[in-house]
Design brief:
mainly beta, 5-stranded mixed beta sheet, 3-stranded antiparallel beta sheet, 8% helix, 44% strand, flat
Length: 129
């Protein structure tokens, strides 16, 4: 479930740490895999923007992926609605092809379920060419 210390481990982001858990070592940050499991195992309304912590981007064309248990999922890029997601691979995975502009890009996922609105936002910065 969680990343943990292992003296003999010398791979991954941090020496001496097994970082294959669903939640980070600090027990606070839930990884994308945790949210994928949550989307399949709960009925509680939520939406999660995948790869939100990967803020520094080098390629303009990318695919936005969101996990969640909401209906009417929508994506906005820099305040502009992108449109409906591609047909989902499952009921809980939504994807959109987008092109980032140089500089900061605000990506927002919004969905509703049972009268409740859920949102997740990230700012991805595309390095100038």
């Amino acid at each position: 479930m969680f990343d943990f210390a292992v003296d003999s481990r010398s791979e991954g982001d941090t020496l001496g740490r097994n970082d294959k858990g669903l939640v980070t070592y600090d027990r606070v940050t839930r990884k994308d895999a945790f949210c994928m499991c949550r989307a399949n195992w709960t009925n509680t309304p939520f939406v999660h923007l995948n790869s939100a912590r990967w803020t520094q981007r080098t390629v303009a064309a990318t695919t936005v992926r969101a996990y969640g248990t909401v209906d009417n999922v929508q994506l906005t890029l820099n305040g502009v609605a992108v449109g409906a997601p591609k047909p989902p691979a499952s009921d809980h995975i939504h994807t959109w092809p987008i092109t980032l502009r140089p500089g900061a890009n605000t990506v927002t996922i919004t969905g509703t379920r049972d009268g409740r609105t859920c949102t997740d936002t990230a700012t991805w910065t595309l390095a100038a060419a």
